[in-house]
Amino acid sequence: MTEPLKILYVTSEAAPLVKTGGLADVSYALPRALRAMGHDCRVAMPAYGIIPESSWGEQVAPCTAHMDVTLHGAIRRSVLPGADVPLYLLEHNAYFGRTHPYGDYGHEYPDSLERFCFFCLALLDGVPRTGWVPDIVHCHDWHTAAIPAFIKTRCIDHPVWANKPTIFTIHNMAYQGRYSSTLMPKTGLGWELFTPRYLEYYGDINLMKAGLIFASKINTVSVTYSKEIQTDVAGHGLDGVLRTRTKDIVGIANGVDTATWNPAIDKRIPANFHSTDTSGKKVCKAELQKTLELPVTDAPVFGMVTRLVWDKGIDLLLSCLDDLLRRNVQLVVLGSGDDVFENALKQAEARFPGKMRVQLGYDETLAHQIYAGSDFYLMPSRTEPCGLSQMYAMLYGSIPVVHRTGGLADTVFDASTANVAGNKATGFVFASWSERAFQNMIARALKLYEEPEKLAALRRAAMSQDFSWERSANEYVNLFREAIAQP
Ligand code: ADP
Q1: Residues 454, 457, 459, 465: what is their CA dihedral angle, to the nearest 10 degrees?
Q2: Ligand 1 mean position to 128 CA, how many Å?
Q3: Is the CB of 388 within 6 Å of ligand 1?
Q4: Atom of ligand 1 nearest to the CA of 254
Q5: Which CATH number, 3.40.50.300, 1.20.120.80, 3.40.50.2300, 3.40.50.2000, labels domain 6-255+469-485?
Q6: What is the pLDDT of residues 101-116, one digit of tens each?
Q7: Does any ligand 1 atom lie closer than 6 A to the CB of residue 406?
Q8: What is the DSSP string of 355-372?
């Protein structure tokens, strides 16, 4: 029998405590799935001020990080609520005792680089003091990318960390942790690393680059995205660096935590339903319309729950809005993000009273209600590393209309004649990212809406998809073992 692994899972957010996007959902579900397989996976993240006091746990170890100055913090031991996953919280009130993990009012905190580099180095100091030593460190996105660099440089003779294998998981290439070179002393990494071979990137510091160069293995969250990031389609300027590591890069699709995202048992929605009896979905639709003060009619409801940012293709939505809303439809958008998109959507809402509702902000309950109450789900993302929303939409019987990119290409199967005949179809997929292609796809969706039997069949197929974490968690374990064999 193969030995269970000890995995330190380091992240900047984890549901249900701190969530700004899909990373938080993954950081709840994957550690849970790994523990269910018998592995000792523990999550580490900063002790943000927004974490309820009841989840702070006891201080179990002090920690120190020698940055440009020496800083002290503490490790608290807690547990991820609702999941049997031990949680280490890195406490440092000045850095993390704030109202948001990354920044207020859409503006990043100016000391992000030093906050997260401190988090990484202090964690490496503190975790062994708790008496637990992992076999592998699993890092996520640029906030934790300094860890592989510290392990391969400053910790080269460390009794615990020397040669410790690391995995760097890319959840989104668009966010790289790029900062002015003048901040190099704040990273805790030496100036000798500020060269094009390591952290330097067009004169700036690029922390993600550190993760890509120093990690034992790299993965991203879908197979298609793992290929796209090695090209200019989604490499965001680091495709060249990624190509130097091709043999160490794999794609492992995210799954869905089906205890949280299951319309048959979800307590956040007004009526439960499942693939063989969707009558509850009608109730959810009517309640959603009432909640959002839209007329309760049979018009098809299109839903979106999304960060309002460029990558999500909000500009494409905006350019197709008038065409869409001139028809007999309703559109519901829940999101927050860039001011320009928030304002433009609010203006559109005013132009189409009774047809469109835009809820700005973050609302977990309304998100579940939109997946449950909408007929179609729009996701015109320019690029999409994996995407969880389209999977939630499918499981809740909201047919996704998506751009064929990244994880959307891997998880949604177009309602083409062949796919429908083979009972494989689960949504509408447009290949070229253009107004025309998006509008054509919406027109196809609306045509289907007029054919209730076909719509029901497609909905059943979408709701029956298996997105459980088990398979992906197994792939992670294989990757961990490969990295341990060759750190
Ligand atoms: P990303 O991680 O790029 O934001 P994903 O589709 O992978 O995109 O995951 C987004 C997650 O965040 C989903 O769980 C979605 O429901 C949730 N989400 C996004 N915006 C909001 C919001 N404004 N309110 C509630 N949930 C949101």
Answers
A1: -140
A2: 34
A3: yes
A4: 7
A5: 3.40.50.2000
A6: 999 877 899 999 999 9
A7: no
A8: TEEEEES--HHHHHHHHH
